[in-house]
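Field reference: sequence -> structure
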Amino acid sequence: MIFVTVGTQLPFDRLIQAVDGWAGDNPGAEVFAQIGPTELRPRHLESVAFLKPDQADRLFRTATLVISHAGMGSIITSLKYRKPLLIVPRMASLGEHRNDHQLATAKWLGSRSGISVAWSEEEVPALIDGLLHSSQAGEISDYADPQFIARLRNAIF
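Structure field:
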């Protein structure tokens, strides 16, 4: 199952339309999307506006692929559960966010193992296909990097 999440603050119709188009071309694929506050009604995937935290957690855990805006909560949760992740950053110039911090996040994390970035909606279908045929997932530790802790300790003491 592919889990798509756009967060809760703003619509992200560009991402949902791209995944909905891919789902239309792949009718056997199971895709579930949390689409946020939007008037858009996808035709080829199951969707809800919002999820309770336990529902979202279950979908993250059971997904074979997560597709998300470049929000840190979604990224960290995907890494926590070692799920392949495709991020599509929101763009302020398209009215999808107040600023371009998601572009900076995507640039920063885009080279990390298990994270792919679609810089435009046109890239989404091919990246989905590639990620579904790859088993590579990123991961994140429950603890801070020991080198970071040592540096912080030296700075404090």
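Note: The chain has one domain: 2-156.
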